[in-house]
Specification:
Low-confidence stretches: none
Helix content: over 70%
Structural class: mainly alpha
Strand content: under 5%
Order of helices and strands: HHHHHHHHHHHHHHHHHH
Number of helices: 18
Largest sheet: none
Shape: globular
Mean pLDDT: 87
Radius of gyration: 21 Å
Length: 433
């Protein structure tokens, strides 16, 4: 056992954390950049004579395929992460992301390749999905097993902020390209630039990850020959069902809040309330920056006050901040920036998710446990949330708010349950070391 649970973060910890966050941000950038150029990609990779809705549906289908590939990629990588080492998988996931992204930038379009173009695009997208499925749980486990016990929340929150920064980077690059190039230039070559950038950044991050060490926890398990003897996934499903359910519900909270408040809101505000695109996108960037801060604050609070209390208070703030945001958008759009920034900060409660997940599984099956719960839940809820919200919109324009409020209520109940079982859990469970 390491008796370093109370030590402060040292230089090596900060180095590990920043390299992990940087790599994660670049992977998220690579994964998300597709959606910002979906319209152009649709025009380049599908025949010109098909109806617009069909082209849009096929393009978003390819985007969604990335989400569907996450569980499979994540579970395979986690299996080897639990049996062969965290560091190897951590490097593989970034390589698996950088190469397809680079290839997307180089891919000939429908006019040159015919039907092979969208098929190749789909395959590359599936590879990207598999990579992100291994990266996110891998990064959380890697960092949590490096830092002192009392700093795990802060480390996981910071890392989650890093992943979200990748979304912000994607939107900034997309905005930059949209403002500096003509529509014609974007259609010819401009849309390829962000993919080249992503691929090159990814390879640089891969090179930087050479300086990371295997986690002390894994090295110790190797030395004690305490690695999982049977298929880690089998152990998870058999012995850790409760942890899986809690982790899946938390992933629903995480994915749905980010999808509704950060990714869908700008388009919803434009369509429902006729707000100008520039205003909603600027407010959205501000909200995303506040979300980064919120994730770090939530993680640090979890270290200080425990997961249960933090989740309960955070869920109440999430409900209040979201209600304020959607009502301001409808009735007083002049305060949109302030309200959206507040909502972004409150969505930061999701920064506590990895902290709870890391604590929920024992070290020998931790990577697999988190990967299975997170990726399967993300594939289901990340995919169903937009459909669900759009469907409820037929009944009320406040559909996105009701959706977030119901999740905040679930978060509050989960927080209460964690608070009660925190003491029991801590008694029963091996400390993360």
């Amino acid at each position: 056992m390491h008796n370093n649970s109370t030590r402060r973060l040292n230089r090596q910890d900060y180095k590990t954390l920043s390299l992990a966050a940087l790599g994660g941000a670049l992977e998220f950038y690579d994964f998300i950049i597709f959606v910002f150029f979906a319209a152009v990609i649709g025009e380049r990779f599908f025949p010109a004579d098909i109806p617009d809705w069909l082209r849009q549906m096929q393009t978003f289908g390819i985007f969604a395929a990335g989400y569907l590939a996450r569980p499979l990629g994540g579970i395979i990588m986690a299996h080897f992460g639990d049996s062969r080492g965290r560091k190897k998988m951590f490097s593989l996931s970034i390589l698996l992301m950088a190469l397809p992204t680079l290839a997307m930038g180089l891919l000939p379009d429908y006019a040159s390749l015919g039907v092979a173009a969208p098929v190749l695009l789909l395959l590359l997208r599936l590879l990207q999905g598999a990579a992100i499925g291994g990266e996110v749980p891998g990064a959380w486990v890697f960092v949590a097993e490096h830092v002192p016990e009392k700093r795990i929340g802060f480390a996981c929150g910071t890392l989650t902020a890093g992943l979200t920064a990748g979304i912000l980077l994607g939107s900034l690059v997309a905005t930059l390209i949209a403002t500096t190039l003509s529509a014609q230039s974007i259609a010819t070559f401009g849309w390829r630039i962000p993919f080249f950038l992503g691929g090159i950044f990814g390879l640089i991050a891969l090179y930087l990850r050479r300086w990371l060490h295997e986690t002390p926890v894994f090295t110790e398990m190797q030395a004690r020959k305490a690695l999982a003897q049977e298929l880690p996934l089998k152990t998870i499903v058999r012995a850790h069902r409760r942890s899986v359910i809690v982790s899946m519900l938390l992933t629903w909270l995480l994915s749905a809040c980010i999808v509704v408040v950060i990714l869908m809101a700008p388009a919803l505000l434009q369509k429902t309330y006729g707000l100008p695109a520039a205003q909603t996108l600027q407010a959205n960037s501000l909200a995303t920056v506040m979300l980064l801060i919120g994730c770090v604050v939530a993680g640090a609070a979890a270290d200080r006050f425990g997961a249960g209390k933090t989740l309960m208070v955070g869920s109440l703030l999430l409900a209040g901040g979201s209600a304020c945001f959607f009502y301001v958008a409808a009735a007083a759009p002049q305060y949109l920036y302030a309200a959206y920034a507040l909502a972004g900060l409150c969505v930061g409660v999701v920064g506590i998710t990895p902290f709870i997940m890391v604590k929920a599984f024992p070290a020998d099956v931790r990577f697999t446990g988190i990967s299975f719960s997170y990726n399967v839940a993300y594939a289901i809820f990340g995919g169903l949330t937009p459909i669900c919200v759009t469907f409820i919109m037929k009944l009320t324009p406040m559909a996105p708010l009701w959706y977030v409020l119901s999740l905040a209520a679930m978060g509050f109940v989960l927080g209460g349950w964690l608070l009660r079982s925190d003491r029991r859990l801590l008694l029963n469970q091996v400390s993360i070391r």
